[in-house]
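Demo today. Your pick:
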Amino acid sequence: QVQLVESGGGLVHAGDSLTLSCAASARIRNNYHMGWFRQTPDKEREFVAGISKSSIIQHYTNSVKGRFTISRDIDKNTVYLQMNDLKPEDTGIYYCAANSAEWSTSPLGFGSWGQGTQVTVST
C-alpha cells in the first residue's frame, strides 16, 4: 500500500486559512482516487473532499463547498487541501486516504491512510 504523511494542521481563529499536505510514497495520479476525511470525538469519520484518479473530477461535502479546494502536485506525488474561511465546526483530525479501486466517499473504500493532522478552529 502507498504510504501517506499529512502535515499542515494547527490552531487558528475562525475566518483564517490553512493548507494541509499529504505526501505519498508512490505515483498517485491515474493510480489512486485521493480523499480527505475528518473525525471528532462526537462524530464518525466523514468525507470532506476527494479528487479522481485523472484529477478531472473533484468532490466536496456540502459544508465545505466554496471554502475548501483539493488539488494534486504530480511531480511531488502530493495532495493538498486548501481550507479558507475556517469555522469552529471544521475542527477535527484530518486524514488523507488513497483508493486504488472504484470511487467511494465511505472510509471503508480507502485502503491507505495517513496518520492524521489536527486542525483546531477557535471562535
